[in-house]
Request: fold
Amino acid sequence: MTNTSQTDPLLGRLIDGRYQVRSRIARGGMATVYLATDLRLERRVALKVMHSHLADDTNFKNRFVQEARSTARLAHPNVVNVFDQGQDEDMAYLVMEYLPGITLRDLLRDYGKLTPEQTIDIMEAVLAGLAAAHRAGIVHRDLKPENVLLADDGRIKLGDFGLARAAANATGTGQALLGTIAYLSPELVTRGVADTRSDIYAIGIMIYEMLTGEQPFQGEQPMQIAYQHANDTVPRPSLKNPLVPPPLDDLVLWATNRDPEQRPSDARTLLDKLYEVARSVHGGVPDAGLDVTRVITPTPNDTLATTVLPSPAPLTAASAPLAGPATQVRSEATATDAVSKLAAVSRHRRGRGWWLFGVLLLIAALAAATGWYFGAGPGALVAVPKVIQSPVDVAMAQLKSSSLTASQRPVYSCAVPQGQVAATTPAAGRLLHKGTKVTVDVSRGHQPNQIPKLGGLTLDAAKSAITDARSLVGTSIDEQFSSTVGSGDVIAATRASDGKDITAGGAYTQCDTINLAVSVGAVPSVVNKPLGDAQAALRKANLKWGQGQAEHSATVPKGWVIAATPANQGGPVRPNDTILLDVSQGPVLYPVPDLAGGNPSLQDAIASLKTYNDANPNAQFVLDTPKVKGANPFGLKPTDYPQYFKVVSQTPDKASDGTPAQEQKGTKITLTVSFDFPLG
Reply:
């Protein structure tokens, strides 16, 4: 078994007299993260320890401390909290909030891609945390799915500010190219310049990956990907996933514009736009604008005319009328003319007033009729309700209650379960006149299809077969060692939704994501090889080795490998897995009995060996043909007349210090004897 302390010496260690290390959570380029217990406050924390080989690098150490300072300045529910920072001997560490759960990368690895609604929900939390950082003058500079934590209790937090810098300092040139290459902005690639808009670009790439299940730019070498970031435009996600709505398409293009000046200035700006997109995607109805109240100034023609008669001139002696009939007639005529004029003016004013009152009544009636027609009558506008992913009977009832007519149209859908609404035409939120017809697309589920056999195909051939069957290839290819499938060929294929094995092909449905396991060749054969050669062979194959059982062997030399067993107890072997090596200790050795001591007779020596073998049944030493030293006048065979020969010496004999020789089972003992017959 592998010695855990040899694998990671920090496991079980007490850091700074306070933090008890329990297990390892993750390992990155700068540090390793452990689960630890804060003995002082009795709580679980995440302990981030900088790699020992970076401890002597002042730049890395400063960046490590900068992460603590940057994150500690952010008190936001969507940012991982930093509790403490310190150094224990030559080891720098951070103490952070522990969030049991998974990362966004794990979620994408399991499901391939997310729905627009899921993408919006996650990115609202991420952008809220990033907006707090930008507001505090901090640029993250390493945004990627691995740094978005999805807690088991539903919380979403942004972490790993290891590359963060103050916004005022982040715009300088000549700095090293930092961050993950797949999410670097064009200005970082070409000029080494980073500010808040560089974070926005990374967010745009993440949204594209969440919607499509893959990154927009790919290549075998990092420089190929960097070149594409600097020179190519990020495509619309809907080209890969037709279910992406246009507002999200536009949001991705805005965030990933190659010109930083054309992107959102910071996370707050992008978040505000995302809220608008969310209302559109979730079927929100735009707020109605306020009617403008206008004051209409009457024109001169609309003003009632008032006729003012001229005042009569004052009478004087010279101008006074003379008494008499003629004078009386002129006076009466003048009075009659004045009365007639006054009556005509009054009639004109009364007639014009009634006419204006009638016009006002007509306008009021028309306004009331128009208001009824467009407010409650046939001309009223109603919003198409959001019924996507609702059962079809529920959706039809909602449309009916909204005074809309509806017709059903069966369609195959990759995202909506059978019997639920996949889409409506017009879309949710559109304002329509009452009685307008709405077409409801009802999902029939995934379209049945046939998929060919994938096992044994090369990786490229398997990918082509999957895409030809209108399905998606899982973003993570599982590399495994195999003694039966050639390197680069497919070992197994499983459906991501339910884990069903479809390696042999057969009946299938479109749109599913298929995860592939690909062979990297056989595990190197290291049995019956020296331990050093075996370790070198495993390292070359990107495998680790661990200490297995030490066994005695009569056939395998000491220090050679007897057996090699995967540490995962029968599961598939993947790169970086551990192989346990059983090493031979050579044969079991037993002390050789002393058969020559005191020069006994050969007969006595034979009896002594039998007695020894009976007492040590595993030894079973064998007596070889004795060698005769000196004269043998009668030519007797020692084995025929053992009583007439005495033992002079034996091989193997005792060591120079007098200790018995050590030999393996069945070793032959050769005795040297001399003739010893009493003559005369």
